[in-house]
Amino acid sequence: MTAAARRALDAAGRLFYERGIHAVGVDLIAVEAGVTKKTLYDRFGSKEQIVVEYLADRDERWRAFLAPYVEAAATPRARILAVFDALRDWADGADGRLAKGCGMVNAHAEISDPAHPAYPIIAGQKAWMLALFTDVAGGVAPSGAEAARLGRTLMLLHEGALVAHGLRVFPDAVEQARGDAEALLEAVAKKGSAHR
């Protein structure tokens, strides 16, 4: 990606996140990025494609941010809690990554048509998170069915924390979700011990 295209994508990402996808036009992106509309269309082809690349970039950055947290954790339980630790640090980032909530959830509020080219990225990011939780839960839960249920419950805690944090519903939403996840994991461990 050229420097001008990177500036355009960064400007588009900031504007889409702060103001909403539909509220931001190509003219504003070009002005904010210091590029011409021609440069935008030459590189991206359409506003839809800019949206696709913005969401893909945001997803890639989150996955890259999360990976070291999960990889450094020694046990499945620690890996699950590491996801919440990463979320807390992502939310606390100086660049306002979660000031207005989850970028994917926000995008879905504007793009709910499965035919839109950005829709698979939005849905795919959430499916990936569910798969991550479910996979790691397999090392904690006593059966595959219980791992699937635990993965879904952890996903709900994670997503609820994202929404509550973005809306400022109450302070420390991510920390509360982490504490609830920890309590849930302890209950699953006790249940597993009782069945042995």
Plain-language structure description:
The chain is mainly α and 196 residues long. Helices cover 76% and strands 0% of the residues. It is built from nine helices and no strands. It has helices at residues 3-19, 26-33, 37-44, 47-72, 76-91, 103-110, 119-137, 144-167, 173-194. Helix 1 crosses helix 4, helix 4 (47-72) crosses helix 5 and helix 5 runs antiparallel to helix 9 (173-194). The longest helix has 26 residues, at 47-72.
- Helices, by number, come to 9
Give the amount of beta strand, in percent: under 5%
From the spread of the alpha carbons, the general shape counts as: elongated
Number of strands: 0
What's this, in brief?
Helix content is 76%, strand content 0%.
